[in-house]
């Protein structure tokens, strides 16, 4: 269960919370999962803080959806104003969606930045689903290559190439996996070539199976694989993908919008020029809006052979939320804040690693940080139990983080981009206290 939550063990909980969880299970069914041994019941948010019904204050160091902070006033105002004016689909000519696309496209650089298009959806899953439909139509093939523990969505198609959903969630027969760029256990300088060789081998296997390679899809911070942030890794991979006739799809749902600090889009850290970029989650600061950016040549045949329509994708209110979120990121220099606060957090945790042997590795970029917990440093043996204990003890002290990776032994620290020095101090002092205990 996610971060040690057990739906069959509620006796230790406050009766009111246990009743709410039982009601939730009855009304929403068994597929919905909660975080933590003692789930958090929230009723209000502001900036980097969440509050429960009793007024208890939590530091949110996990939520990248509200990248510019819970209930950001500028986003609220933009959404309210647009909802008070008009909310309808994209089959009418409207300036808002055009202005937003025109402002965004140059940020991608390369071919997309020069002549690319944007297409809008409601969620990152929909964006990845659309990207793969385009890639398969463009190439006439259906094979997809992803990393071993990737997550790319929960539609029928995207769940089929999201191995992190678990062994009981079947992968498509047209899916092949390659290792994640594990900079903790391999030479970082050799990772790009290692992954490119793996792509070449798997593309050959797809060809032998009669599928061929339609696309390679990667989250450039390898979030579900354990948070790996070595730059320049994906350059050789892109070359191998193109040599096999496939498209390179950069999944920026997690890594985009300035989160890595040094670049606005995570793939730019690797010096590549993708065919399609997908985005979602933080794009509207909690409002459901997502998109793809695509080169003209990749989408040309798809656009001429079939239409694309999404009832809610790109509606006026969604675009208002996206526009306001972008404005806050740029006007408040949140990309620079991600660089500065992220470095402060990594340095602080690295300092703790000098005292606590369970910390095997500290890695990440900007405000996306992975802390690998191990039973033995020399052997680099994953310690999922320790990671779960830390996550849950942090929660008891009202600091919210999570865990990730194939062994669930990597602490995932992914706060809103408005994280401050005071927030970083709270997180580091709490982590230190938990490790000492």
TrEMBL record:
Gene Ontology MF terms: pyridoxal phosphate binding; transaminase activity
Protein's name according to its UniProt entry: Aminotransferase class III-fold pyridoxal phosphate-dependent enzyme
Required cofactor(s): pyridoxal 5'-phosphate
Family stated for the protein in its record: Belongs to the class-III pyridoxal-phosphate-dependent aminotransferase family.
InterPro entries, sorted: Aminotrans_3, Aminotrans_3_PPA_site, PyrdxlP-dep_Trfase, PyrdxlP-dep_Trfase_major, PyrdxlP-dep_Trfase_small
Glycoprotein is among the record's keywords: no
Database matches in SUPFAM superfamilies: PLP-dependent transferases
Domain of life, source organism: Bacteria
Keyword field: Aminotransferase, Pyridoxal phosphate, Transferase
Gene3D superfamilies the record matches: Aspartate Aminotransferase, domain 1, Type I PLP-dependent aspartate aminotransferase-like (Major domain)
């Amino acid at each position: 269960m996610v971060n040690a939550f057990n739906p069959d063990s509620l006796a230790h909980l406050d009766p009111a919370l246990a009743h709410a969880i039982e009601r939730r299970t009855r009304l929403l069914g068994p597929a919905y999962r909660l975080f933590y041994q003692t789930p958090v019941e929230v009723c209000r948010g502001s900036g980097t803080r969440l509050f429960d019904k009793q007024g208890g204050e939590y530091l949110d160091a996990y939520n990248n959806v509200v990248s510019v902070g819970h209930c950001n006033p500028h986003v609220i105002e933009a959404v309210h104003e647009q909802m008070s004016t008009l909310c309808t689909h994209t089959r009418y000519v409207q300036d808002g969606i055009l202005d937003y696309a025109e402002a965004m496209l140059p940020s991608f650089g390369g071919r997309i930045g020069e002549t690319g298009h944007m297409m809008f959806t409601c969620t990152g899953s929909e964006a990845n689903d659309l990207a793969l439909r385009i890639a398969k139509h463009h190439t006439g093939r259906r094979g997809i290559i992803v990393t071993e523990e990737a997550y790319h969505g929960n539609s029928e198609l995207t769940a089929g190439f999201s191995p992190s959903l678990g062994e009981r969630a079947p992968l498509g027969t047209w899916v092949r996996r390659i290792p994640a760029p594990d900079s903790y256990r391999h030479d970082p300088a050799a990772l790009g070539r290692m992954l490119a060789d793996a792509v070449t081998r798997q593309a050959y296997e797809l060809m032998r199976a009669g599928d061929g390679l339609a696309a390679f899809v990667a989250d450039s911070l390898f979030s579900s694989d354990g948070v790996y942030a070595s730059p320049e890794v994906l350059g050789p991979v892109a070359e191998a993908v193109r040599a096999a006739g496939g498209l390179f799809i950069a999944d920026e749902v997690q890594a985009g919008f300035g989160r890595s600090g040094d670049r606005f889009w995570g793939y730019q850290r690797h010096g590549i020029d993708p065919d399609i970029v997908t985005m979602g989650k933080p794009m509207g600061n909690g409002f459901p809006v997502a998109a793809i950016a695509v080169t003209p040549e990749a989408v040309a045949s798809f656009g001429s052979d079939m239409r694309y329509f999404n009832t809610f994708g790109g509606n006026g209110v969604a675009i208002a939320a996206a526009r306001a979120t972008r404005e806050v990121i740029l006007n408040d220099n949140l990309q620079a804040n991600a660089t500065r606060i992220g470095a402060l957090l990594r340095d602080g945790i690295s300092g703790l690693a000098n005292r606590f042997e369970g910390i095997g590795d500290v890695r990440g970029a900007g405000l996306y940080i992975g802390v690998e917990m191990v039973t033995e440093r020399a052997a680099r043996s994953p310690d999922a139990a320790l990671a779960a204990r830390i996550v849950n003890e942090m929660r008891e002290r009202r600091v919210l983080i999570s865990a990730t990776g194939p062994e669930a032994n990597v602490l995932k620290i992914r706060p809103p981009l408005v994280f401050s020095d005071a927030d970083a101090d709270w997180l580091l002092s709490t982590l230190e206290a938990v490790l000492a205990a």
